[in-house]
Amino acid sequence: MTPIVGIPACTKLINGHVQHATPARYATALMQGAGALPLLIPPLGEVELEVLERLDGLLLNGSASNVEPHRYGVDQDLTPQSHDPARDSTTLPMVRAAIARGMPVLAICRGIQELNVAFGGSLHQQVHLQPARLDHDAREELIDDQYLPRHPVTLRGELAGLLGAARIEVNSLHEQAIDRLADGLVAEAWAEDGTIEAVRVAGARTFAFGVQWHPEWRFAAFADRIALFRAFGEALRRAA
Asked: Are the C-beta atoms of 168 and 224 separated by less than 8 Å?
């Protein structure tokens, strides 16, 4: 049977109505790149943990929202208008539970930040304000330009093996970034300014990676993105 992968939705206010949504490109990359069927998960909190019984994998997708700082023990909030507490309350317990079950997990952009926070790490709320760090956020550019390759990352460990490369060019659309790496996560990619760009869950029973860039964007045009989704798909079928 075709594996089914859950994608947590974000809370959106559209035409005055609260809606649950996420960009369609994640579903497209899952279907075409990993050979999996997507299932959108409403951000309704821990009650959604029950849906894991019906899933073969989890994809933590990107979002314009930021993880609330109190989730990682920080009082000062530098982006108070950019949060989605309903998503936080859903994804943070869900990713811990998914990995405990031995479920394949791919975390993208906000997803890698959620993964780090879920396992006890912390975030830079605005990484470009840190000394000697680059501006990693291209979201103010035109849509056709936002996802262009922006900077190189150096890969090591298992991720380098999966992608068949030690260095790739990635897009960059984030202001949050990993600060203190959580216990249980291993950094496997870095930008030239030292920003952690990918992690692996140490000791996970199957595929469990997070990347800070957006491999789902026009994934079929890049060998490393094809390889990432193919590896995720293979892990899904092994686990199923």
From this structure: yes
Active-site entry in 83, 136, 174, 214:
214
Closest CA relative to residue 185, chosen from 127, 123, 129, 120: 120
Q: What are phi and psi of 140, to 5 degrees?
A: -85, -5
Which of the following is catalytic: 68, 109, 114, 124? 109
What H or E segment, with its residue span, contains residue 152?
strand 151-155
Report yes or no on whether pTM surpasses 0.85. yes
Backbone φ and ψ for 65, nearest 5 degrees, come out as -80, 160
Does 17 qualify as catalytic in the annotation?
Answer: no
Instruction: Assess whether 214 carries a catalytic annotation.
Output: yes
Assess contact for 133 and 191: CB atoms under 8 A.
Answer: no
What ranges make up the beta strands (E) of 23-150? 37-41, 57-60, 105-108, 123-124
Res. 141: pLDDT tops 80: no
Annotated catalytic residue 83: no
Cα 3 from Cα 13, distance rounded (Å): 31
**Are the CB atoms for 83 and 175 separated by under 8 Å?**
no
Phi/psi of residue 119, nearest 5 degrees = -100, 10
pLDDT tens-digit series, residues 72-117? 999 999 999 999 999 999 999 999 999 999 999 999 999 999 999 9
Q: Helix and strand tally (H, E) in the chain?
A: 6, 13
